[in-house]
Design goal:
By secondary structure, this protein is mainly alpha-helical. It is built from 4 helices and 3 strands; from the N terminus they run βααββαα.
């Protein structure tokens, strides 16, 4: 999703625009959203102030990325809060969508929870990271100038090293 007006965001989220203004302003003050060009070329004027075009908002960088600094102990707690918040939001959205009619199989599936683990070679880990990058790029593309209906989707993932356990040697019985 690219730069978006509050009205467009409200429509996508199924909320009233007035319910978003406070949150948008707070995110803008914190630097997590930036006001960009006006929407005059692609959207109607503001309903409240017809003399002005609706403002567009976007994240400062696309996609919104986390700067990891594991060598700084003070970053562990804020990163932990961020990851907990992301997983809590994903869980809430999953449970809201888990109802009769949810698409849970096939190529148009929109509801999926999974957990996988395996020992990966360096090459396999590189391939996994490239594929995750590709998914993030796909989901970060702008919706501008795209025709046809679109299904909003959200993907939250966490890649972690598994616990390191010594491998048990196999004894031959003979």
């Amino acid at each position: 999703m690219g730069p978006i007006s509050i009205a467009e965001l409200a429509r996508i989220l199924g909320r009233a625009p007035t319910a978003l203004y406070f949150h948008i302003a707070k995110l803008e003050r914190q630097g997590m959203l930036v006001r960009c060009e006006s929407a005059s070329k692609r959207a109607p004027r503001s309903a409240l102030y017809p003399e002005r075009a609706s403002a567009l908002f976007s994240v400062p960088t696309r996609p919104l990325t986390v700067v990891y600094q594991p060598e700084l102990a003070k970053t562990q707690q804020p990163i932990g809060k961020l990851v907990r918040s992301m997983t809590a939001t994903a869980t809430r959205n999953f449970l809201e969508a888990y109802r009769p009619g949810a698409v849970v199989e096939g190529s148009h599936r929109t509801l999926w929870a999974s957990r996988s683990k395996r020992r990966l070679s360096a090459r396999e880990l590189e391939l996994l990271n490239r594929q995750l990058h590709g998914i993030v790029r796909l989901l970060s593309q702008s919706d501008r100038n795209r025709a046809g209906p679109r299904q909003p989707v959200e993907l939250t993932f966490i890649l972690t090293p598994g616990p390191v356990r010594p491998r048990l040697s196999r004894r031959r019985r003979g």
